[in-house]
Amino acid sequence: MENILPLAIDSVELNRPIIISGPCSAETEEQVLTTARGLARAGIKVFRAGIWKPRTKPGGFEGIGVPGLAWLNKVKEETGMKVSTEVANRGHVEAALEYGVDLLWIGARTSANPFAMQEIADVLKDAGKDIPVLVKNPVNPDLDLWIGALERLYNAGIRRLGVIHRGFSTYGPQIYRNHPQWRIPLELRRRFPSIPIICDPSHIGGKRELIASLSQQALDMGFDGLIIESHCDPDCAWSDRNQQITPEVLGVILDNLVFRDAPV
Ligand code: PEP
Ligand code: MN
Question: Which of 92, 109, 111, 136 to mutate to test the pocket of ligand 1 (most atoms within 8 A of CB)?
């Protein structure tokens, strides 16, 4: 992976620190737009929302699906933010590209699955679009599997690649929802210094109280950005409610972080 290009949307490079925020899940049009308006006021430039949700057990909210992509379009029109979502199979990629999603990310359960990764790489190759893709670490602490997921995309011609560190599953009670095991993302960066690395303190910590300190730790280690879940009414969120914060709280957290290079 020698020719990685900087993350860019419509030829505009995403400046460091890259801050991405939005709800775990798109739930309703109003929730998406209210959250996005708050984030735009806080200066966020890239919005996230899960449209298809990989839930651990059946019976939970599994995502709003394609109708939510139209809400993301409204976010773009109204706020000027760029929008991103998670894709896990061919149908997701096709729908996201059709609706003009600006940036895709691959979830931790998908990056652990070589068949799914190859399918996504193939459909992106066929589409021939220069879309940036962020690959979350696999749920299990397997650096080669993470790198393999990146290589499948790279071999399909995707050059605007980045990674998201979201921690690793462990069994039993933990402070963290997903253990950070920082040496794994740091080793990936050592091997591939041109791949931007973004920290997801929301899924590492699993609790909103841990977001600020995990974010600062990541920045102190030279991470290139943060992806943080936010919701207009976090306690009522349909997924990951304990780790979501309001756009206003996000603004306060960002104001208090020490950025090594450029401030937000
Ligand atoms: C998410 O970003 O909401 C998500 C499902 O994350 P992960 O793949 O890291 O579990
Ligand atoms: Mn989530």
Answer: 136
Look at strands 18-22 and 225-229 and give their pairing.
parallel
The two tokens of residue 33 are 């737009």
Q: Assign 9 to helix, strand or coil.
A: strand
Query: How high does pLDDT run on average in the chain?
Result: 97
Q: Which residues pair with 226 in a beta bridge?
A: 19, 199
HSE, CB side, 13 Å, CA atoms: give it for residue 187: 12
Q: Cβ < 6 Å from ligand 1: which residues?
A: 24, 50, 54, 107-108, 136, 166, 203
Helix axes 143-155, 114-127, angle to 10 degrees: 20
Predicted pLDDT of residue 263: 42
Query: Distance between CA 111 and CA 145 in Å, rounded?
Result: 7
Stated as kind and residue range, the H or E segment containing 147 is: helix 143-155
Per the listing, tokens 């071999």 go with: 155
Q: Which of 212, 201, 210, 208 is nearest to 241 (CA)?
A: 208
Q: Is the peptide bond before 17 cis (omega within 30 degrees of 0)?
A: yes
Candidates 53, 54, 85; CA nearest to 70 is 85
- Read off the tokens for 220: 């102190």
Calculate how far, in angstroms, residue 181's C-alpha sits from the geometric centre of ligand 1.
17
How far CA 148 is from CA of 83, 115, 262, in Å, comes to: 26, 11, 32
Residue 262 scores a pLDDT above 70: no
Residue 43 amino acid letter: G
Q: Which domains does the chain have, with CATH numbers?
A: 18-256 (3.20.20.70)
Q: What does the pLDDT look like over 120-153, one tens digit per residue?
A: 999 999 999 999 999 999 999 999 999 999 999 9
